[in-house]
Amino acid sequence: MSTTRRVSNGRRRRTASRASSAWQWNKENSGVDGSLLLQERIHLALRADSENIAAIVDLPAGVDSLCWQYEHIRQTVADASALVVKLRAVCTPQDCPKMVATDSWHFLCAAHKEPKECCAIDYCLHTLENTTVLLNNPVAFPCRSSIPHESLFYFPNIVRRLYRIFAHAFFHHREQFDLMESNTHMCERFTYFLMKFGLMQSKLLLIPVEAFSAQPHSFLNSSYGGGAVGQTVSSQGLLSPPAKPRCLIPDLK
C-alpha cells in the first residue's frame, strides 16, 4: 500500500496548478537554509516587489559580500536566458550576423579556442553556457556558501559578457527588451548591481539610464555613465582586481 508523503512547509506544487498560485506559501518561514538561503532570499525579494531595486540588491546585514554577488550573478544568468528565449524569433543569423551593440561596439565570442566572430544569437547562447559552466566549476566555486576571495577575479569577466546580451537587445531588439524590462526590471537591477559592487566602470555601460523606469534610482543617476560609444572595452571591470587564481578553469576573454 503506497502512501503520499506530505511536505511540511507546504511548498509542494500540485499537478495542473495555476501559475498565479505558484508562490503562495508562507514567506516568513520558507524552510530553506544552507547553500540555497541567499538564492531564496533574492527570489522572495523579486516576487515581493521587482521594482524595489535597492531592497533586492543591497547587501543584507551579516551576509558575505562575495556569496551575495555570486548569487546575483546566477540570477542574472537566469534573467538573460529568459531574454534570449524572447530574442530567438527576431535575432536570427541573417538579421544579426555579428554580435554588436552600437555601430562602434563589435564583440568576438570567447567560447572557442581563439576568440572569433559569431552571430549575435550564438554569442548569447555560448556566453550563457560558458558562464553556467564556470559558476558551477568546483575549483573556482567549491561552495555556494563560501566563495574564495581569489574567485572574485572572474566576476568582472562574467558580468561584462552578460551585460553585452542586454546591450544588444536594447539597441537592436528594443521591443523585446522593453517588454522584458517593464515586467522584470532585470537590466536596471543588473546595472545597479554592477555599480553598487564596482564590477564595471560606469563609462563602459552602454544602455542609457532613460531606458529604465520613469524615475530611475538615485544611485544610477549619480554614478551612471550611460554610453561610452566608441571606447575600447576594458579587460578588467574592477579598479583593483585581485590576482588571477592558479586553477584550471575556463578563462573568459
Write a structural description.
Helix content is 41%, strand content 2%. With 253 residues, it is mainly α. The protein has a two-stranded antiparallel sheet. A hairpin with a 5-residue loop joins strand 1 (99-100) and strand 2. Helix 4 runs antiparallel to helix 5.
Widest sheet, order of strands: 1-2
Shape: globular
Helix/strand order: HHHEEHHHHH
Radius of gyration: 19 Å
The percentage helix is 40-55%
Number of helices: 8
User: Termini, distance in Å?
Assistant: 58 Å
SSE-based structural type: mainly alpha
Q: Please report which band the strand proportion falls in: under 5%, 5-15%, 15-25%, 25-35%, 35-45% or over 45%.
A: under 5%
Number-wise, the strands total 2
Could you describe the largest sheet, including whether it forms a barrel?
2 strands, antiparallel
Estimate the mean pLDDT confidence.
80
Brief synopsis:
This protein has helices at 37-48, 53-57, 65-87, 120-135, 154-172, 174-184, 186-196, 218-223, and strands at 99-100, 106-107.
Give the helix/strand layout:
Elements: H1 37-48, H2 53-57, H3 65-87, E1 99-100, E2 106-107, H4 120-135, H5 154-172, H6 174-184, H7 186-196, H8 218-223
Helix pairs in contact: 3-4, 3-5, 4-5, 5-6
Q: Key terms for this structure?
A:
mainly alpha; two-stranded antiparallel ribbon; 41% helix; globular; disordered N terminus
